[in-house]
Amino acid sequence: MPPPEESDGLPLLEREPEIAAAAHAVEGLFGDTPSGGLLVYRGAAGLGKTALLAEVRRMAAGRCTVWSARGGETVTSVPFHVVRQLLQPALTERGPDDVRDLLGDGYDIVGPALGVAPPGARPADPQGVRDGLETLFRRLAETLPPLVVIVDDAHWSDLESLGWLASFARRTGGPPILVVVAYRSEDAIGECAHLLRALGESARLLVTLKALTSEATARLARAALGEHADDPFCREVWEVTGGNAYETVELLAKARDEALDPVGRSAGALSALGAATRGTGLIARLEGLGTTTTRFAWAAAILGTDISLELVVSLAGMGPAEAADCAERLRLARILVGNDPLEFVHPLIATAVYRAIPSGIRTAFHGRAAWLVTRKGLGAALAARHLLEVHPDNDAELVEQLREAAAEHLAVGAPDAARRCLERALTEPPLPRVRAEVLYELGCATLLASPATTVRHLRDAIDTQLLDDNLRVDAVFSSTTTCASTPSSGSPRHSRTTTRPGKPPGSSPPKRPAPRPAPPR
Prior knowledge:
The chain is α/β, with parallel strands linked by helices. The protein is built from 24 helices and seven strands. It has helices at residues 16-28, 49-60, 81-92, 96-103, 107-114, 126-143, 159-168, 190-202, 214-225, 231-241, 245-257, 270-275, 279-287, 291-303, 309-316, 320-332, 347-356, 359-375, 380-387, 396-411, 415-426, 432-445, 451-463, 469-484, and strands spanning 37-43, 65-70, 147-152, 177-184, 205-208, 336-338, 342-344. Helix 9 packs parallel to helix 11 (245-257), helix 19 packs across helix 20 and helix 20 (396-411) packs antiparallel against helix 21.
């Protein structure tokens, strides 16, 4: 479901150059020599990036095929989450045989990453998955009207999707595809920031959005509340919001709801109204809706984006009628939108609600969410994002779930996600013999990204003297050959690592039966 628009029906002001560039890019898909490209909008939270993407979507509607996706703060650890949002609608409308034909030789490589094929028994090559995704996009684009790909909140994209997108944006040849990306510059850190910079370098347009001027804020105030809104009132709106487009729209909606007379003598009330749209004021407004409604909002924040009503009802621990009442209260309060799935009106609200959940309750919610996801048969990999947030508690079942999730991540070409699961499993901690196996698996997971780290983990596993014979032999061989091909700087000397016949270094251990869902804690 597309994210809600920020403009609330109000005009999109001081974004004319960005809108014109987007219109030109969309028209370029239909020229005598059709061309695509990449547009990137960045800026602080609430400056209207989502509203700009909604305008691009409106321009392309009815003429283009539009695929949309959105990152989420609580789902950054889910591999290929953004890619699946983009592609699954196009794949689910086809039958299984058509999907297999479409993917061709890449079915067993790309299919698991997209969730249309079961994970294989062996790790997938991440570059092979990226290449397969690019091939799939090209094939689909050749059979559809001109394609527009929209990614919002890319700063919260999973690294696997973002890495693919950065590579895809540099492609040459093939059918024209327009890619439009928006992200918060202040929240892009680490590898995510590096990949977003790479995207910016490939863009035909890279724009840093700025706050609205007092003049634009006054125009919005008069559009929302009437032309009789006077200058002192409009100036106070701008002072309270700092020209933040989202906060301006929310403040004007509150003023309208309160039937506030938009004249100078009412300006003093704007500060209190503005506080209720963000931070502690927002949380106080949420708590004013009652403890049951607050709990429902907490459960929704735990689940993140594209919120399943069934899951949020189970997680909140309430009946359908009570849940429906809570959802309606939250919609009227402009906190949630939609029915099933639900979404937060703005990511700023989702973040504020999530961070307001008391630490102990938040951890318990994540534990129960993992249990619900597993019980519903959605797989250990989807449960893992919740398990990563649970406090260590010597839970053997949780360790097994994390190991199962790591195996699934490796099978879809997401070794970094596997590494996170296994590192978390070590902190539980596992029993000594299981710890040796987790160290071995962690060595397998880090081979491509950090051979030196692989050697350290494999040697640690060997030093426990608790590995079975097969794993110990493989760990010794793999650590020796990896060490031999890795200079002291930690970067490989050769593009390929010597392997023992029939047994590549870092190959996955024998498959274990899937663990039972761990009970909620």
